[in-house]
Amino acid sequence: MLLQLLSRFYFFVFDRLICYHLLKIYSAQFKIRFMNLGYVNDNDGAVNNAIRENGVEESEAPHIGLYEKTLSLHPQYPSLNDCRLLEVGCGQGGGIDWINRSHPSLTSVTGMDRVAIRDSIVTGDAHDLPFKPSSFDIVINIESSHLYRNPQLFFDECSRVLSKGGHLCWTDLRFDGDEKQVLNQAEKAGFKLVSIEEITDSVIRGMEKVAQRYDQILLTAPWYIKLFGDTFRKTYCAPGTEAYVKREKRYWTACWVKK
Questions:
Q1: In b/e form, how buried is each residue of 87-115, taking b as 16+ CB within 10 angstroms?
Q2: Rounded Cα distance, 211 and 23, in Å
Q3: How far is residue 256 from each of residues 80, 166, 170, 192, 216, measured CA to CA in Å?
Q4: Beta-carbon count within 10 A of 215 CB
Q5: 216: how many CB neighbours lie within 10 A of its CB?
Q6: How far, in Å, CA of 56 to CA of 88, rounded?
Q7: What family does the Swiss-Prot or TrEMBL record give for this protein (predicted)?
Q8: Using alpha carbons only, how large is the chain's radius of gyration in Å?
Q9: Domains along the chain?
């Protein structure tokens, strides 16, 4: 039990004080614009068409696939006309760049993260979004909410900043069965479920492709980054790490509408 607590504390410190700041320095050099595990499904025509039509680099296709899969649950997808979109937890900003490029009918695309990598990203906390009520029509949140200390506050804040009839498009991992808690939190925040889908197998395929590239990057990284090599590999669930071998969590994508 003590070892588990120490491990969780270490990963918390690594995520908050080390990982993001190293990425801020080296993301441009190593061309790292995304931080999600990826999504690959050869039978998902909607997602694959969006990737093909917009000329995506092969190394970024799995990451972009997860964005498109998440957005595809929106009732108006692929047409998102006249909508104001916010990504909570946008990381490096690759996702908002992609959405701007692939969905030009959106009125605006805003990215927010706890650590803003670039000036165009708003600095903010998912528990206290720095936006006025009804500021957006779509909120997208990818592979981020499992890190929040209070997911209920996150759902409450999403409801506050969304206009009535607006949609929350969400993707993340949870221990098997814990997705029910997510559904309860969203409902408590005033959302009605539109669609939910388990995508674990497709994420694992994406994760394997992503890990190949990141493992190559680690080989050429400075020595002080290599010191955290095992931790980075655990973060992106590389084959051979505990997270990849045990596979104790399931991956879900869902869309809700604000009542």
A1: bbbbbbbbbbbbbeebbeebeebbbbbbe
A2: 16
A3: 15, 8, 8, 5, 38
A4: 16
A5: 12
A6: 23
A7: Belongs to the class I-like SAM-binding methyltransferase superfamily. Erg6/SMT family.
A8: 18
A9: 2-26+58-203+241-258 (3.40.50.150)
Neighbours of 118 (CB within 10 A): 12
**Alpha-carbon torsion angle 76, 81, 83, 89, nearest 10:** 70
Contact at 8 Å (CB) between 115 and 25?
no
Alpha-carbon span 123 to 116, nearest angstrom:
5
DSSP bridge partners of 128: 125
Q: Rounded to whole angstroms, how far apart are CA atoms 20 and 149?
A: 18
Residue 19, classed as helix, strand or coil, is helix
Nearest to 178 by CA among 194, 202, 158, 198: 198
Distances (CA, A) of 166 to 38, 135, 259: 26, 10, 8
Model confidence at 29: pLDDT above 90:
no
The two beta strands, 249-258 and 191-198, are: antiparallel
pLDDT 10s digits, 147-190: 899 999 999 999 999 999 999 999 999 988 999 999 999 999 99
CA 70 to chain centre: 9
Distance between CA 4 and CA 136 in Å, rounded?
A: 39
Backbone angles phi, psi at 253, to 5 degrees: -130, 140
Prediction pTM value: 0.89
